[in-house]
Write a structure and sequence with these properties.
Mean pLDDT of chain A: 96
InterPro entries (chains A, B): Carboh/pur_kinase_PfkB_CS, PfkB_dom, Ribokinase-like
CATH architecture of chain A: 3-Layer(aba) Sandwich
CATH class of chain A: Alpha Beta
GO molecular function (chains A, B): kinase activity
Largest interface: A-B, 46 and 46 residues
Protein name (chains A, B): Ribokinase family sugar kinase
Number of strands of chain A: 13
Order of helices and strands of chain A: EEEHEHEEEEHEHHEHHEEEHHH
Radius of gyration of chain A: 18 Å
Domain Carbohydrate kinase PfkB (chains A, B): 19-278
Low-confidence stretches of chain A: none
Number of helices of chain A: 10
Oligomer: homodimer
CATH topology of chain A: UDP-N-acetylmuramoyl-L-alanine:D-glutamate ligase
Distance between the termini of chain A: 48 Å
Helix content of chain A: 25-40%
Strand content of chain A: 15-25%
Keywords (chains A, B): Kinase, Transferase
Strand order of the largest sheet of chain A: 5-4-1-8-9-10-11-12-13
């Protein structure tokens, strides 16, 4: 039945202190699907593009066992476009423009073949649309959801209606503080888990990630990177690696969730090594395993 | 010969959103010595106070096997005083006042009994004084040094002269970026290690700490704390736990350094649970071991 991924596909124009690209492949569904594709397939992508969406991108996604039956291609429409500029300190970025284009009227329709999917990843889109996706599913068992400050501020009510329906919420530290109205992340995590999701992951960029479940808190390190080429898509790649690993193993134990967080961090670290989706296009599972072990060495210590 | 600790002793007036204390025991040498005292003794403290320094504090330090032969008590002088206010987000603090008092003329004199100490911890004081301490030592083998943005900005030259003489520099992330003129912490660490210290520890507060040596990078988690009562002294407690463990074991291998970072984090976590030095006054080694293991559970994951 596959892993269902719903989110945006876009054409990104990105400038960093190192280089610049125009109209490169981007979007949350794109990064999530590519990252997840290394673990198991098929990935069933639901999203929307215009007829200007390059065929080479379609082909590339197809080669990664990403099923595009649910991709709406609007004849004569223009694909979603985003442009951002990163500063010398790559933690800071400015959005230069956002053109919603066909994405403005996106109404996700889940193909029959994907409605029975047990694993669902809701990329960062309007919580109203995320709920609409779940309405169409027959009996999803593990729903991972991303969101952002824009929705927390602008569609709080709709987001709070969605949260009890998701198993895992993945947000960053500033979003967690905003959603919980609480600066202490440990307290914020308790408050957010009480809103619905039994599992919460707080991404902290260069400081790693925290996993909160009923019985455990797990602190994952960040991969020490001297040169981050393009941070775009890191969070989506994390979500893709996380759900991809769980979809492959079907093991939802705490120990497996911890490994999934590390696989998420692994995919995010590959993502930022190249512009656009390039860092996720030609990996081998051996490379992924190798980096997983590097994460292990990074944080491991023993009693004397 | 003991572990030599040089730094400030002071009377702190601290306000947090939870409570307020006046003229409570503080100072870098105080926190370092107390934290280190749980691992091995004797601790030889060198510092300066006025005759207003309460005898109960002297007694308390003595009960922790802290040798005060090197403590200068200036008759008629006033002890160093600092006052700070923490905000609701405890990462932010304002200094309300700093009265140097007797500390302004501090000229550390190392007692003969301590000049042969092999382990030295230089608390955060003027790098000129830190160098003066080392000038008096016979053959120190392991020198740990703390500093802060004030010295990095105001006494850069003197600090750079000191750094080749220290084995471990412990600073926080913003200080590392400032010292190296580099926002990427991994690159900054390389640059700082090239300034002299073969071992660098970057403290990241609620995000844990990073250890950099020639052969390894180690990422230590932060202890998940719902209520931080008073963050004052956390960094000094970290330094004390770090050098205390190494002084006890005399094992300077990478694996031991990693454990020392966790013991440092452990002592910092106890420190912030109570106001002033209260969190470090009545611990047992069993409690410390127990929290060390909690740190282990927090970051440990296994391959499937």
């Amino acid at each position: 039945m596959g892993l269902l991924v719903v989110g945006s596909l876009g054409l990104d124009t990105v400038a960093t202190p190192f280089d610049k690209i125009e109209n490169a492949l981007g979007g949350s569904a794109t990064y999530i699907s590519l990252a997840a594709s290394y673990f198991s397939g098929p990935i069933r992508l639901v999203g929307i593009v215009g007829s200007d969406f390059p065929k080479e991108y379609i082909d590339m996604l197809n080669t990664h066992n990403i099923d595009l039956e649910g991709l709406q291609i609007v004849e004569g429409g223009k694909t979603f476009r985003w442009s951002g500029k990163y500063h010398y300190d790559l933690n800071v970025r400015d959005t230069l423009y956002t053109e919603l284009n066909v994405f403005e009227k996106f109404d996700p329709v889940i193909p029959d073949s994907a409605r029975k999917s047990k694993f669902v990843c809701l990329g960062n889109i309007d919580p109203v649309l995320q709920s609409k996706v779940l309405d169409q599913m027959e009996n999803p068992q593990f729903v991972v959801c991303d969101t952002m400050n824009y929705w927390i501020e602008g569609k709080k009510k709709e987001l709070l209606e969605l949260l009890p329906r998701v198993n895992v919420l993945i947000i960053n530290d500033s979003e967690a503080r905003l959603l919980a109205h609480e600066p202490n992340l440990i307290k914020a995590a308790k408050l957010i888990r009480a809103m619905g999701p039994e599992i919460l992951i707080i991404k902290k960029g260069e400081h790693g990630a925290l996993l909160f479940t009923e019985e455990t808190i797990f602190s994952a390190p960040a991969f020490p990177m001297e040169s981050i080429y393009d941070p775009t898509g890191a969070g989506d790649s994390f979500a893709g690696g996380f759900i991809g690993y769980l979809f492959k193993t079907r093991d939802l134990s705490s120990e497996s969730l911890k490994r999934a967080v590390i696989y998420g961090s692994t995919m995010a670290s590959f993502c930022v090594e190249k512009f656009s989706t390039k860092g996720l296009e030609e990996l081998s599972y051996l490379q992924i395993q190798d980096r997983f072990r590097q994460f292990m060495n990074l944080s491991r210590f023993d009693e004397e």
